[in-house]
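Issue: ligand-bound run for flavin-adenine dinucleotide - logging full I/O for the record.

Environment: standard queue, default settings, no custom constraints.

Inputs:
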Amino acid sequence: MTIAIVGGGLAGATVATELRERGHEGPVTIYAAEPHLPYERPPLSKGVLLGNDEPDSVFVHDLDWYREHDVVVRRGTRVTAIDPARHVLGTADGEEPYEKLVLATGSSPRRMRLADECGKPVVYLRTIEDSRRLREALSSSPSVAIVGGGWIGLEVAAAARSMGCAVAVFEMAEQPLHAVLGPEIGKAFADLHRGHGVDLRLGAAVTAADLAAADLVVVGIGAVPSVELAADAGLAVDNGVLVDATLRTSSPDVFAIGDIANHDHPVLGHRVRVEHWDNAIEQGKTVAHNLLGDDSPYERQPYFFTDQYDLGMEYVGHVGPAGYDEVTIEGDLAGAFRAYWQRDGVVVAAMHANDWDASDAIRASIGTSFAKGAAG
Ligand SMILES: Cc1cc2nc3c(=O)[nH]c(=O)nc-3n(C[C@H](O)[C@H](O)[C@H](O)COP(=O)(O)OP(=O)(O)OC[C@H]3O[C@@H](n4cnc5c(N)ncnc54)[C@H](O)[C@@H]3O)c2cc1C
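Outputs:
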C-alpha cells in the first residue's frame, strides 16, 4: 500500500515512524514544503531561542533514520492539489498516485496588518528561520513590543527578558491566557511576567504608536490552519479539516491530523481542534494504526506544556464551550501549584506548575468527581 503524507511536521513524521514500527513495508513518502527534515517547534520559542539548545536538536530523526527505514522525505516539495476520487496528488513535478493519504499541513501565524505596516522590524514565529531571525533581532534590539499574551507571546517575552530587552506585551483580554486558563490562573502568569519586569498592558488594543515606540515587534496572535488543499479537493472544512472520531476526513482514504484536524472527539462529546505538540504525536500514531486496518477512535485528552523563566507547567483536558463553574487551586500561585477546573462537580481540566510529580495524577483526575487533594 502506497501512503502519502502531506506535511513534513511532527504529525507527519510520527505517522511514518509508527507505520514502520508497526511493520508496514509499503512505500511511504512525506511531502514537506519546508527545506528541512521534519522538526519540533516548541524549542523554537524556548531553548533554541534562548541559545540553550542546539538548533539541530529539533529534528524528529536525522537523515540516516529516513534512509534506513525507507521513508522518502521530499523536502521543499509543496503538494498543490489532491484528487481523492482518482487517488492522485499534484506537485510542481507532476501527478503521483497514492492509495491512502494523510493531511498534516499544520498552521501558519495569523497576520496583523497594523504590525506589518508599522515601519519597524516585525517577526512572526513558526519556523526554524523565524526563530533564528528572532534570536538575532532580540540580541540587537533594546526594546521589544509583543502583540498577544498567549503561549508564544509569553514565551518570547521570557526569552527577551533573559536576553536583557525591555519588553512590553499587549493583550486585549483582561489577563494573559484568559481564554484557556480563566482569570485566576491567567493572573498568576501576569504576576510572573510583571515580576520579571515585563510591561504587561491588558484589556486594550495595541496602537500604531505603541508599536512605533519599540525597536522590534513580535506578533503572536494565534495561528490559522492550512486547509486550502483540503478545501480545494472538496473535503469538508470548517475551522480545520473535519474528521470523524477515527481521524478520517469526508473522503474515506484521506485522513487529517495535527493542527488542522477538527476532530469529533468521542470522549469530550464535541468537536475540538488542538494546536499542541502532544496532539500531533498521538494523532499521528492513531492514524498510522487506522491506515493499517484498525478503526480506532482517538480518545486522548488534549495536553500541553510551557516553560517560561523558571516556571514549567503541564495542562490536561479541555474546558470546552460549556465552560467551568469552579476552579480549585492547591499550593502557591507564585510557586508550585495544581489547579482543577470543574463543571457540575466533575474535573474537566487540570494543570500543575513546577510540580512534576503531579503529571500522572492531574491526567487521572479528568472525568472524576473532585475531592480536595485527590491528585495527592
Ligand atoms: C514557536 C512554537 C512553540 C510551540 N510551543 C509549544 C509548546 O510549548 N507546547 C505545545 O504543546 N505546543 C507547542 N507548539 C505547537 C506545536 O508545535 C504544533 O501543535 C505542532 O507543530 C503541530 O504539528 P503539525 O505536524 O500538525 O503541523 P506543523 O508543525 O505546522 O507542520 C506542518 C508542515 O506541513 C507543511 N505543509 C503545509 N502545507 C503543505 C503542502 N501543501 N505540501 C507540503 N507541505 C506542506 C508546513 O510547511 C509544515 O512544515 C508550538 C508551536 C510553535 C510555532
